[in-house]
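Hi everyone, sorry if this is the wrong subforum. Our group has a chain we'd like a structural model of before ordering constructs, and none of us has done structure prediction before. Sequence below.
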Amino acid sequence: MQVLYFAGSIRGGRQDSEIYGKLIAHLRNYGTVLTEHVGDNELLSQEKMMSEQEIFSRDMEWLRCTDVVVAEVSVPSLGVGYEIALAQTLGKKIVCLCRRSVGNLLSAMIAGNPALIIERYDTLDEAKALIDTHFMEKQ
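Answer:
Right subforum, don't worry. Here is the predicted structure as tokens:
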């Protein structure tokens, strides 16, 4: 089983937390998801117990030991962009999921980066099928 890192907007907006939770649950079919908390609606209140330095250190360690990063990039997030850039520097496989309804609003730094796998979807089932195509080949 692989070690996976799911990235999704936290402070940039939590409107997709339910989608994140469902994507994370699906990713568990393929390995251990270190960042399951990203799909938790109560995340912001839980992380109040941690300093920003503790959150940064924890997440950087998780990125170093992960095999694949899956980032839902429909909601703009400085943190997700930072995680993607670091994961690229570390040589990780990175799959970015983005709803088609976002259109051309996806940052050119993500959409134009040839090192990233960008997958667009309309429905949650379509997003899960896209995940399957990237992880079934590894099994």
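For your construct planning: Residues 52-65 form the longest helix (14 residues). The chain is about 40% helix and 20% strand.
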